[in-house]
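hiii so um. not sure if this is the right channel but i have a protein structure encoded as C-alpha cells and i wanna go backwards to a sequence. like what aa goes where. can anyone help
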C-alpha cells in the first residue's frame, strides 16, 4: 500500500478523497462504532476494507473517519500491515477515568437498584486487617431490617462481605487477614480454618458467599467480590436481611443477582472483560 508524504512531513494514508456525506452526529456515532469494533478485534487490527464493511460507508468516507481518529491518537495505523489498532489516547482516557472513579462511586447506583429490587439492605465493604469495614450502606425500606452504619467494622471471617473478599485473595495474603482464633459470634459461625477454607472453595465455585446467620443471629446475607483494573479483589457488595424473609432458598434468586451486581461494579472500575471470580479463582 502506497503512502504519500504531505508538505508538513506527515505521512498520509490512501483512500482519503471522495465518498458519502456524513452528518456530525451520525459520523460521531459511526466513528465510535468502529473504534469499539477495533478494540474488540484480535491483533493486529482491522483493514480499511473491514472497517468500511462494518460502517456501511464507502472506503473514502470510512478513511476520513479513520484518519481523524488516527490524528487524535485514538487509532494507530500500521503502514506495513495496512491495519488499524487502538491508539495511546485510549490508554490516557482510561487512566484518567480510573483515577477519578472510587469504589464507592462505582457502586452507588448498583447498590440502590439492588435495594429497589430486593427491598433488603445492601452493604459495600473493604478489608482492614482481619475486619471488614462498611464504606457504604443502602438501607432496606422495610420497617424490620438490618441496622448497619458506614464505618462499622466486623470480623471478615463471619460475614458475607468478608468471606467474599477473603475467598479471592492470593493464598499468600490470606493468612494476614485471619485472626489467630475464629471466635464464635453465633452458633453458626465457622470456627476452624479447614472449615473456613472449605467454605471459601464453595464461594469461589458459586461466585458469591453466604452468611448463614454467622455474624448476627437471625440475619442471612449473600455477597460477591468486586475486582479492580488489575483483576484484584478490592471489596465486596452484599444483600442481607432477616431470616424470615431471606431464607436459604432465596440463594437461587439473590446469588446470581449479587454476582451480577458485583460484576457491574467491577466493570466500572476497569476490571478485565471476562475477569472476576472465574479468572481470580
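sure thing!! here u go:
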Amino acid at each position: 500500500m502506497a503512502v504519500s508524504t504531505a508538505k508538513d512531513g506527515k505521512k498520509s494514508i490512501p483512500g482519503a478523497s471522495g465518498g458519502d456525506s456524513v452528518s456530525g452526529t451520525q459520523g460521531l456515532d459511526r466513528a465510535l462504532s468502529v473504534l469499539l469494533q477495533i478494540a474488540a478485534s484480535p491483533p493486529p487490527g482491522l483493514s480499511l476494507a473491514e472497517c468500511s464493511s462494518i460502517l456501511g460507508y464507502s472506503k473514502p468516507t470510512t478513511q476520513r473517519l479513520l484518519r481523524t481518529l488516527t490524528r487524535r491518537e485514538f487509532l494507530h495505523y500500521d503502514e506495513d500491515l495496512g491495519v488499524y489498532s487502538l491508539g495511546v489516547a485510549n490508554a490516557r482516557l482510561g487512566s484518567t477515568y480510573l483515577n477519578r472513579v472510587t469504589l464507592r462511586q462505582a457502586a452507588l447506583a448498583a447498590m440502590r437498584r439492588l435495594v429497589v429490587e430486593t427491598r433488603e439492605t445492601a452493604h459495600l465493604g473493604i478489608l482492614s486487617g482481619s475486619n471488614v469495614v462498611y464504606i457504604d450502606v443502602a438501607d432496606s425500606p422495610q420497617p424490620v431490617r438490618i441496622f448497619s452504619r458506614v464505618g462499622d467494622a466486623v470480623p471478615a471471617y463471619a460475614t458475607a462481605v468478608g468471606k467474599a473478599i477473603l475467598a479471592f485473595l492470593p493464598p499468600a495474603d490470606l493468612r494476614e487477614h485471619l485472626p489467630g482464633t475464629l471466635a464464635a459470634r453465633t452458633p453458626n459461625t465457622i470456627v476452624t480454618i479447614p472449615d473456613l477454607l472449605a467454605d471459601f472453595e464453595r464461594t469461589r465455585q458459586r461466585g458469591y458467599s453466604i452468611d448463614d446467620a454467622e455474624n448476627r443471629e437471625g440475619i442471612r446475607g449473600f455477597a460477591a467480590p468486586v475486582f479492580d483494573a488489575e483483576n484484584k479483589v478490592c471489596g465486596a457488595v452484599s444483600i442481607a436481611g432477616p431470616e424470615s424473609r431471606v431464607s436459604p432458598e432465596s440463594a437461587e434468586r439473590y446469588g446470581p443477582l449479587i454476582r451480577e451486581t458485583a460484576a457491574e461494579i467491577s466493570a466500572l472500575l476497569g476490571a478485565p472483560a471476562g475477569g472476576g471470580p472465574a479468572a481470580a479463582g
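oh and The CA atoms of residues 95 and 177 lie 30 Å apart.
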